Amino acid sequence: MESLRNKISGRNIVAILIFLFLLTAPFYMSSFRTNMISKYMCYALVAIGIDMIWGYTGILSLGHGVYFGLGAYCMAMYLKLESSGTGLPDFMTWSGLTELPLFWEPFKSPVISMILVIAVPTILALVIGYLTFLNRIKGVYFSILSQALAAAMATLLIGMQKYLGGSNGLTNFSTIFGKSVYLPAVKSAMYYITLAFLIGAFVICSILVKKRVGKVLVAIRDGENRTRFMGYNPAVYKVFVYCLSAVLAGIAGALYVPQVGIISPNDVNISPSIEMVIWVAIGGKGTLIGPIIGALVTNFGKSIISENFPELWSYFIGFMFIFVILLLPGGIVSLKDVPRRIINKINLYKEKKMDNEKNKKVLAKRQHN
Amino acid sequence: MNISVNTPVIEIKNASITFGNFKAVKNVTTSIGKNEIRFFIGPNGAGKTTLLDAICGKNKLSEGNILYNDGNREYSLPKIKEHKIVELGIGRKFQAPSVFSGITIQENMELAVAGSKGLFSSIKGNITKDERERIDDALNFVGLYDMKNEYPTKLSHGQKQWLEISMICVLKPKVMLLDEPVAGMGRRETEKTAELLRIIKNDCSIIVVEHDMKFVKDVSTSVTVLHEGSILCEGSIDDIQNNQQVIDVYLGRGGDKNVKN
After folding, report:
1. pLDDT at A128 over 80
2. What is the Cα–Cα distance from A328 to A297, expressed in whole angstroms?
């Protein structure tokens, strides 16, 4: 128990250090870097959600880009309308629309838009989750299904040239809640709002994981059937955690758009969805702080490397992923265990060697006799 | 074939189970009374586990019915969802020990004991004082109280089985379904398990699938021999051991190691 407590508090210290760094970063980093970190915090928010569903519940979703995209598009539609003033959004005029499509209407109101940012991903996750988990679709079948969802979503968006900007996506935003998005004050406000959501999500998920619901999720991961025969209905819990992760991804998407200035079908497709899972794997799944570290470190690495060697990035992330899977299954957060593991390995090797020598001696004796 | 049955707790009526074209269980009728320890024995593929699965709702019946009487009401089990069946008081232990290794022994017990298994009460997530006491009792009962803050990975095979049994006990079930509870256990562990079952049966009916004949002799109050999906013979262990048919299809061909003692 003692060692367990230590482990948990050790993780909390790491969490506090990271959050302190994020809190103070705008004071000593250029606004370019700060903006980058803000973007990575959005990714970290997605990663926390994926950790809840994958790390704790054992459901590998390869389609969280969809929920990220839904949140992002809801936000982008609001921003676009606000930036266009009384006129139509620019791409609609180019494609010959003369009237605002009906489904754009709600996004005229900032309040309704914010509600939709949360509601749309939740409802889709609820429907998909209900249909799949209630029908006991699981494991690799669910992963494939979720991936197909990402592909379908991207294709759908690309096809909606007139209504959602097609493959160009939505961009050219100028104001948010009446303020220019280029104002430094707005930028730093966005930064801290993102950080607040990240910390909030981390705290809420940490509490959930400690409550019985978290234990049920782990139980579902370790033995779904057994959980069912203990009287729990795993489908309900799976739908819950799926919706939770979808909401986090949706909020992340909504925070991402005003800071990055564009959302396009490329950001909701299969490969960004898989990248999200990789952040969690690299950081360390099932730890909550690991995914945050994973998202920050991986993306920071991505920027640094692609600034210097633009072609190398994809090899690098592939290599990192393989490295983590093979040698560091616990991700970055398990780095502190590495010395102990090496010592154990050495001891094991020594014991084996001694055993071998003993056996040899015994054999030699036998032969002698 | 005279089993003294007081009010039956479980009544299996003409139950058949088919998988595709294969009839795994054919027209089985039997009933299990209060405080009874019933063993299902028989060669591999006789349909023992399939029948257990049908009682707890994992397998669907193709014909027949299974009735459950909890003392107040009678339920038709095939119409009820698995997790509801558990709530009605039927606990199931699977063949392989399947405690949850990602959470501590205490947390395993807390999951089992929780009065309401719905999402919202899990999010609130506190167990009552009474439930805490029941956990302590159940852990003391199987002798794992001192290890309650460890992870189950530290337990031996036998201890895992006991933990699982205590996870069922803590629910205070009316019926306990155990699939090969002593498989892989040493003699001493088996004896302890037998001891536990004898205590448990005071508040509960137990159905056990098992191959270990010594264990069957030790604890059974009645035995049902299944063969190729149907009941071959039913009665006390002595009846069974003297039944020529049973000796021919099961006992005689090495289905057991210690029968002739």
Report:
1. yes
2. 16
Count of domains in chain A? 2
Interface of B with A in 57-76 (CB under 8 A): 58
The pLDDT of residue A255: 95
Q: Does residue B203 sit within a domain?
A: yes
Number of domains in chain B: 1
The number of angstroms, rounded, from the C-alpha of A300 to the middle of its chain's C-alpha atoms is 15
Question: In this predicted model, what pLDDT tens digit does every residue of B138-174 receive, in sequence order?
Answer: 898 888 889 888 999 888 888 998 998 898 888 888 9
- Structural domain including B237 reads 8-99+175-253
Residues of B numbered 197-256 whose beta carbons fall under 8 angstroms of chain A's beta carbons: which are they?
Answer: none
> Residue type for A149, please?
L
- Residue B1 in this model has a pLDDT that exceeds 50: no
Nearest CA in chain B to A2: B149
Say if residues A17 and A189 touch (Cβ distance below 8 Å): no
* Bridge partners, A169 (sequence order): none
Task: Specify the CATH number for the domain of residue B91.
Answer: 3.40.50.300
Residues of the domain holding A356: 337-369
Report the CATH number that the domain containing residue A102 is assigned in CATH: 1.10.3470
Alpha-carbon distance B244 to B252, whole Å?
A: 9
Percent helix / strand / coil, chain A, rounded to 5:
80, 0, 15
Cβ–Cβ gap A219/B103 under 8 Å? yes
Give chain B positions within 8 Å (CB) of A213: 119, 122-123, 125
What the block records as the tokens of B142 is 């199987």
The pTM of the full predicted model, rounded to 2 decimals, is 0.83
Tens digits of per-residue pLDDT, B170-208? Answer: 888 899 999 988 888 888 889 999 999 989 988 899 999
Is the four-CA dihedral B59, B65, B71, B73 of positive or negative sign? Answer: positive
> Do A47 and A115 belong to one domain?
yes
